[in-house]
Design brief:
The chain is of the alpha/beta class and about 400 residues long. The chain contains nine helices and 25 strands.
Length: about 400
């Protein structure tokens, strides 16, 4: 089977690419291993909501139009939203088709699937950036009596073994799961490394309103000093709830969650913890303070101070005087590894990786292999790239480049 472009992945990013390909009359197919929005359907816990408010849920030619623009979509809502988009744009879908290999060929690329082989001069990888949970090597030393779970496996507290839970990681995923477990009556400890502290609302507006209005979300590749660093920054400590509550380490501590330092080593059933907890939290507090100052400066310069509440400042993260430096893991029933994710490129048989196994690309354009593109990664081209609404600008840029490559139209 031959086509100009094969898009791998029918999530919101792949569908946004399909929208722009169709607009330029570029024939293509969107291959998906399951149903549309497969990852949202199968690899998210039950209570999860988007971190972005509904008014930010938009894709090219399509946007949320419900009665609660300031609310946050549940996972069924997200699935319906993405599925509805696929119908509206009439994406050329090839569902329940697993890609087993992508390799160079005389035609450009050969995309091998369990339903046949596609030949195309261009391929867009839209398979997501959260395919495989990052589990640190120290996990191998966890006592066999302790169950180990990733956020991809976690669904709700009832599915975990009774007893104490250690959540490793304090970004959005870690603090949300820790909070839910504690609310269910569990004894919870959180091992904290680098994190981004951010209030849900500031001066009466959602923090995403501020990020949007100040232009932070539109910052691009040339607007940051260290792009590698920008792409690896943890997701902010946010939760999307109807009451727009802030969830941070102070909230967890007030609820009775034990906060300890980063898990550094495990030996003989004992976890050794980093002594840098206070410094890590102080740095997160400082960065939050700088962000709020940026918001204040913008509000003054844009003469919108009168339209928002007065400036706010938040209490520093509270750390006990002598945080423990060890934990007896035999006292825990479960460890949840909320330590991030990485893409799965096991089927990509093209020499486009660096020494760390990361795909080499320039804003989604894989220059080492012309005709190969990537979409849907953190800070792919802009700070908003990882959000649903960030797919529009990134996809437009990628498809414009692709169109020039195949000589279509005036692109």
């Amino acid at each position: 089977m031959r086509v100009t472009t094969v898009v791998i992945g029918a999530g919101h990013s792949g569908l946004a690419v399909s929208h722009f390909l169709t607009a330029l009359s570029i024939d293509h197919v969107v291959i998906e291993r399951g149903e549309v929005a497969h990852t949202w359907r199968t690899e998210r816990w039950d209570s999860l909501r988007l971190l972005t408010p509904n008014w930010q849920s938009r894709l090219p030619g399509y946007a949320y139009d419900g009665p609660d623009p300031d609310g946050f979509m549940t996972m069924p809502d997200v699935i319906d939203f993405v599925h509805g988009y696929a119908k509206v744009i009439e994406a050329p879908l090839q569902l329940h088709t697993t890609v087993t290999a992508v390799r160079r060929s005389p035609a450009g690329y050969e995309v091998v699937t369990d339903q046949g082989v596609w030949e195309a001069p261009t391929v867009v990888l839209a398979s997501g950036g959260f395919n495989v949970a990052r589990i640190p090597p120290v996990a191998a030393a966890v006592p066999g009596s302790v169950d180990q779970v990733t956020p991809q496996r976690y669904r709700n507290p009832a599915e975990l073994a009774p007893g104490r839970v250690l959540v490793v990681g304090a970004s959005a995923t870690g603090i949300q799961i820790a909070h839910e477990l504690q609310m269910s009556g569990r004894d919870v400890t959180v091992a904290v490394g680098e994190h981004v502290r951010m209030p849900r609302t500031y001066r009466g507006r959602d923090v995403q309103w501020w990020m949007d209005r100040t232009g932070r979300l539109d910052e691009g590749l040339d607007d940051v000093d260290d792009l590698v660093r920008a792409r690896s920054v943890p997701s902010p400590q946010l939760v999307g709830t109807p009451d727009r509550t802030t969830l941070d380490l102070n909230v967890l501590t007030d609820r009775g969650v034990q906060v300890v330092g980063r898990l550094a080593r495990i030996a003989d059933g004992s976890a050794q913890l980093s002594g840098s907890l206070r410094n890590v939290c102080n740095l997160a507090d400082l960065k939050q303070q700088r962000l709020l100052e940026l918001f204040d400066e913008w509000a003054t310069g844009a003469q919108t101070d009168a339209d928002v509440d007065p400036p706010e400042r938040f209490a520093p993260t509270r750390i006990e005087d002598d945080p423990p430096l060890t934990l007896d893991l035999n006292g825990f029933e479960t460890i949840v590894w909320a330590t991030g994710f990485r893409p799965d490129y096991s089927w990509l048989d093209v020499p486009v990786f660096d020494r760390k196994g990361q795909l080499r690309h320039d804003g989604g354009i894989v220059s080492d292999s012309p005709g190969l593109y990537r979409i849907g990664l953190n800070f792919l081209r802009r700070r908003k790239s990882s959000f649903i609404h960030g797919a529009e600008d990134d996809s437009r840029d990628i498809v414009d480049h692709l169109a020039r490559y195949v000589g279509v139209g005036d692109a």
